[in-house]
Amino acid sequence: MAFVDLFGDKILTKEGEKDTTEVLAGKTHVLIYFSAHWCPPCRGYTPALSEAYGKSAKAGKETVIIFVSSDRDQAAFDEYYGTMSFYAMPFAQRDLKEKLSEKCYVKGIPTLVLLDGEGKMQADNIRGEHDKVARKKAASAPPGECPYGDGCPPLQPHQEAVAFLLHPQSPVTRLLVDHPTGSGKTREMIRVLDNFFHDPRPKVPIFPKEPVCRNFYAELLRWPSRYRDFFACLRPQDATRASGVRDWKTKRAQLWDVSGLPGSDLKELCINMREVLEMKGWFFMGKMRRSRREAFYRRYPDEAAPAAPLRALRYTSAGGRHAELRPDGLPVSALLKVAFDRATANGNAYSNKVVIMDEVHNLVRVQTQFGEQLDRLRLLLAGATGSVLAGFTGTPILNEAAEGRCLLDIIKGRSQVLKGDGGFLSSFPMRPAGLFPLSLPLGIPDKVLTPNLRRQFVRRVFLTGEPLKRYDVKCAKGLPERRLRAYCNLCVHFGSLHDGKNGSKARVLADMAGCAPKLHAIAKDIAENSEKALVLVARSSGLEALLAHLQELASSGGQAFGVATMEELAEFNAPSNVRGEQYRVLVADAAQCSEGVSFFAVRRVHLADVPVTPSALVQSV
């Protein structure tokens, strides 16, 4: 079959349209690439195909690739084709595109069809063969080495599904994503936010604690996205530090390894990225200033600016001051003021927003000191109109099944709560070993917590003397169990642990075995064992006392060792500290460390605050 019959008289090249006969003359292999910009699997596959094509000695000589678009408009086609080095069928030839799809038996995209030099089909989809080569290359990588080099690994199928569903052109606007811990939810969130880059609604990712917000910005620095490109344009010196090369554009589509940066440098980069993405000065009364947009495109004609700001919030602040309205009906928050329409918002600051929530099970927590803020946030999110709402969690049910039902109803919204649950839930309950290799601290089971398993890793420490008396007194006063647990760690209130006139710091540190037997047992175990360790303890349960005690043990006799805090997280996780060469132990606030924070190469985990439920243990380890 003649190529003109397949593609028409003209083929689009990077130099413009040319005669099909001229372009394909002498070619022995012609690959037809059916793809579209709106398709997440396509966007994940295109860079790999481009890389393979660019490395082929036959590319452009004997072998060519022709892109056939399924995009919905010319603008999307132009943007997507701009990332390719292939030829393309002109977008206007939609009738030929439909006929070609039928002739090539295209059932879905991306599809890669192979023709010979005469236009005869040799294979109806060889995309799978290319994937096999990529997977084989990844499997042969040495242990500990990224199988993709500096490149960006493709999204996994469960991640592609979420990115496909949460898109401006998708009818899905509310989704509960139930994917297990370690399945890459942060990257899913980044891809979803990138999908809405040109959407005029502000982007509001919400996290449990401030350190998790900061970790999100660190992940934004790490993974390729248009938000990272925008930041790099406005802060090229920061982009150089994060990417490790003078010209960040040479690593635009690659991972940036920020794990080796000092903690203070990474924190500074995260703060700078937050300020850039907030787009301060770009908006007035919720409307973008044309002068700022035009100035950006004059200076960076080949780059893109987001249509709305992005800022990560904590659950408490999202349901607190940010949710309030001014007397004139506009939101107090400059972020939520963008795209806010008083006529349709019904007094809801979260109407017409793109809201992405991590660890969304926090919405239905009942035992919390921030109950008022969470109540308000629940009501606002359930009643928001014109918004995209996505909640990510690995444990949708913390204690009772009713919590999962309540959470899903919030995600669905009041206007759709009576509808069925179909279309509102993405569930991926498994962790295939091929995708997520098992990497758990020794002795921590990844299975049902039977009584026998509990006994294997729970160590008993008995209270005696003053700690026992103080605990009995507090128990007699009727303190709730949550507060009583703190007195199991430290016999005094944590607020009194200072060097002032009425402080108890000197007395407690002089007799840790008597005043804080559990914390003393943890510190003693770490001092006597050279394995890299992590301690999770709440500030109200004696974090400062344990930290001071460990630092004292680390410098007094025996083998010295380093003690890190969250400020040294980057150094603790660095390859140079894989066995605790610099920092043997990191002491972290249990209230601020959950799914969003990772600790690498840890051999021993000490949970000073015993998890109340199995799901709480999963969150910790």
Automatic annotation (TrEMBL):
One of its GO terms (biological process) is negative regulation of Wnt signaling pathway. It comes from the Eukaryota. It holds the Pfam family Thioredoxin_8. GO terms for molecular function: thioredoxin-disulfide reductase (NADPH) activity. SUPFAM superfamilies: P-loop containing nucleoside triphosphate hydrolases, Thioredoxin-like. Residues 1-135 form the Thioredoxin domain. GO terms for cellular component: nucleus. This is Thioredoxin domain-containing protein. It comes from Polarella glacialis (Dinoflagellate). The lineage of its organism: Eukaryota, Sar, Alveolata, Dinophyceae, Suessiales.
